[in-house]
Sequence to fold (1260 residues):
Amino acid sequence: MIPPQFEYYAPSSVDEAVALLRRFDGEAKVLAGGHSLIPLMKLRLAEPKALVDINRIPNLAYLREEDGYLRIGATTRTGDLLDSALLRKSYPILTDAAQEIADPLVRNLGTVGGNVCHGDPGNDLPACILALGAVLAVTGPTGPREIPAAEFYRDTFVTALEPTEILTEVRIPKARSHQGNAYQKIEKRVGDFAIAGAAANLVVDGAGRIETAGLALTGVGPTVVPATAAAAALVGEVLSETHLANAARLAEAATDPSGDLRGPVAYKRAMAGVLVRRALERALARAKGGS
Amino acid sequence: MATSARPVAPAASLTSAGGPTSRIQVTVNGRSVVAEVEPRTLLVHFLREVLGLTGTHIGCDTSHCGACTVHLDGKPVKSCTVLAVQVSGREVRTVEGLEVDGKLSPVQEAFVEAHGLQCGFCTPGMMMTATALLARNPNPTDAETRDAIRGNLCRCTGYVNIVKAIQLAGKKMQSASSAPGGKP
Amino acid sequence: MSAQVPSVKGGIGQSILRKEDGRFVRGKGSYIDDFKLPGMLYLDIARSPYAHAKITAIRTDKALKVPGVLAVITGKDLEAAGLAWMPTLMSDKQMVLPTDTVMYQAQEVVGVVADSRYAAADGAAAVEVDYEPLPVVTDPFKAIAPGAPVIRTDRKEASNHIWHWETGDRAGTDRAFAAAPVSVAQDLYIPRIHVSSMETCGCIAQMDPVSGRFTIWMTTQAPHAIRTVFALVTGLPEQNIRVISPDIGGGFGGKVPVYPGYVLASVASIKTGRPVKWIEDRSENLQADSFARDYHIHAEVAAERDGTVTALRVKTLADHGYTDAAANPSKFPAGLFHIITGSYPFAQAFVEVDAAYTNKPPGGIAYRCSFRVTEAVYTIERMMDILAHRLRVDPAELRLKNFIPPEAFPYRSALGWTYDSGNYGAALAKAMEIIDYAGLRREQAEKRRKGELMGIGISSFTEIVGAGPSATFDILGIKMFDSAEVRIHPTGKVLARFGTKSQGQGHETTYAQILAEELGIPADDIRVEEGDTDTAPYGLGTYASRSTPTAGAAAAIAARKIREKGRRIAAHLLEVSPDDVEWKDFAFRVKGVPTKSKTMQEVAFAAYTNHPPGVEAGLEAVDYYDPPNMTYPFGSYICVVDIDKETGQVKVRRFVAVDDCGTIINPMIVDGQIHGGLTMGFAPALLEEIQYDENGNIHGGSFMDYLVPTAVETPNWETAKTVTPSPHHPLGAKGVGESATVGAPPAIVNAVVDALQPYGVEHIDIPIHPWKVWQILHAKGAPTP
Fold:
């Protein structure tokens, strides 16, 4: 399988990259890790006129806490998430998710930005950043802007990112004390797309009451599914079996899966419920200081 | 260098299709190589067809099987899903770079001794992943080893002896480094 | 001499390291895509997006304008040369390229030849074809129903029914069922799967226009048979055809057939006068190369009230795709499916198979198994569990009660096979002991009380391999012998060539070990070659676990022929009569004076420097071995699974495999074969399947969706052996490459069904996806935590 011809550019700044995207007016694609794009091109399902390789732009791969946010640069490799002691301690949901992404070889090239921007409902990071209430920093011809993750995903492979814009940074509110989060996923075989996945983020108060809750689901809709009602129902509660069951039920109701090789609709929907409950249990344990 | 924002002027093409090419410089198994390639040239084809390093294999095209695994700046990656232009200025190591001064690497030795291969097709990629794993963790558990090679498919061995071979290689590396005169 | 048992370095029974590994671990293997010939061109293929359609126009002008593209080949071009169709091994025919109608999605339509791989791909992408879709039939039951659209309008018969085949005593079996106090019946579907060797298929064809010499390097498991087929199909003189099978990156049966790509590359080379390379990509491999299985089985077992089985009745519909291109011995359209009575002494059995055309790619090849033996073993081992379940007896107990007893061998089955040797009870007892069967059943009872799902599954399989005796086994009339040619050089070093072809099995090592044992020459001094029809003796190739049973036997017999000649040379050297010389403890020894001896190396030197009068110089022999019977490897596998009640996910906790392949030549290699075989049994049980929708669109046509197991879910296989030699094989060996693929699936399915026994489940079709288990649990009521 051979990709069709294209022009290749490796700009050295975000502005230069944006100018290239603008020049090709939607017919150029950003090349980050390439692990979704290059296979699509080899299958000749994508035939961009040009590739804009952002891997040589300096200072786009980083991961640090600064100014109230965990900031992750767009070309940070998903494998770097797994290696981060900071994430394991304060944002374990991202460690959970990174471990689920494809395989270690793919993670050495696949980027956080690519996983977030591709718009495939099977990607693992979108549910996590939704649950965490992240904001996406993008730069376009008119300069930088921020898009809340909750407003980013429109449809399968369709996001709020304009064809002339580049994601530069994922901004996740800095972890608080008594915050816990987790990502749970089931798949037919490791590295396969999710049957379903669930991301949960909780902050509890001293009495064990839920202060804030974020929930989102992988693989059970045309795009990542926010389980907003399920999360809202948890706030102010000390979680009991009833609350967990209720959250699972509300999360299931939010799904819109399609039946495929990974399972029929009813199964995927039920799995969303099962995984929400499991993710909540683990997030709660972590919020209370467990692992 | 390929960092220019303009395509390099067309030069002698490696393929017949006559598209524009870029000049790349890559260090492969310690040797610097300069070549003109079409931007769409996949790293695996560059290694196999241009440099004649046919130990890196192609098993699937969709980055699922890992037969094409090479090291890029020390990390294992799937060379069927990397463009040759992307690796300009960087270091690539292939299976042909494992043997040093006529001596097999501990991983190569262990794959033979533990019967970690049968048809040999997945073996180079598997050994590249194993080599990278052991550089980080010379004493991996069964679970760690299996997880590390989950992106490398093998159809012959059922993985049992591959896991053994990797762990054996780790032991060889540790005893070599603790032996008098061995590397720290 | 010491009291040690005499042995030769690298002889039979030793786990010597493999001779082939040196090149493989250095990345110096020579697989087909590693070859580059001067002036070589590349072939790429444009394929059909439709499963059934009329071709109304093919436009190649844009393709021909792609820089580097030199030629295109269409079905009409081939038709003019009489090559649009080619024969299959099963007296059917298949298209090289269609002239007017495509019959499956991804079928080859136009070949594009270019001076680079990239240009060929661009050319194939630029081919334009107009199609007029035709009604699609993907369900074989619908295909043979009245009124179904006929797929193969080229045949006289206006029907999608290909053939009916039956064996056994129908009336006797019906009577046994009528009289039986107990009977069970079950529909079982074994879906279409794909071998997915890590290396895809490919070739380089080279026609030398001057000499008329045609050479093809190709990924084939049977180079000699291919040469003859090429000669018969093309009319090229056979002495001018050379087939070279280089290092093969896994075969498993998928590299037995002749695919259109091979023929197209050959035609392209003839057309251009230059070597032409064709290498499949993975999607082409999965979507268009021959598939395995696709058997719809209805099976019934009759028994006495005490569980003694009495009769077996099986009716099967086989989905062959658009042509019957199965790779079976010619007289066996359903392969050796009638080994289906398995390890049990059924007094009566009747099996019938009907074959149907559908709009799918052709095949019916093996997936690491002797012809349709997996289908047979799966059926009988599932049915034994269903019977045990119905009778509420332990499945181990039911098997132990019914096994053909060791003293009954050679045993003639109701369907006509003569099993060579077996001790089934010993293998099962050993597996039960290793895994602590009684302890597991206690644990299971405890877990059931707690509402947890744990299952234990057994499979006690009997294989039939080593095809085969010439009376019944042939491919296109060529008898299924195999061969060895052994030559000892003056310095006592050996070159041996074989008609088989290793694809990872380690022939270079095991054949050397057989010869080491038989010749008293260290295995290190023995070089084994295969895969070049110009040099190797004729043989039918490697598949169906036949290499050790046939070519391995030929090696032993050829070596013994050499010993016979060597005895006369040794007698000359020892100045005694040949009758006074015997081969003992790896040397020629004077009877009664064992210290007076000559080694094979000494004899070899003399064969070229001092051969006795009346004896030809040189020391070599050839043997074409026609096996007197098939071999019947067997074993018992026990699998333990845990099931997540909420998600339906199945985890194999333990899997113990006790195999009996007769004499073991290299224990390390045998274990490796079993590990790999088990994994290829695990895969279709839980993961792999190729499906088609009603429009004939393939699902599972790339590694994105076709889920080959990774190291993570593959169990840590535990293996053990019993050794019951084959009485008719010169070494007592039976073959082992496929036993585990054949034996493993029912053990896994039986374990899952066993776990679900509290829910009254009798069967789940493979692959057992989590959603199938969940649906059962869901239908039976919400899981109780």
About this structure: The mean pLDDT of chain C is 96. Residues 607 and 618 of chain C are 5 Å apart (CA to CA). Chain C has three domains: 21-28+482-625, 32-134+200-248+255-288, 291-467+629-779. The first strand of chain C starts at residue 41 and ends at 47.
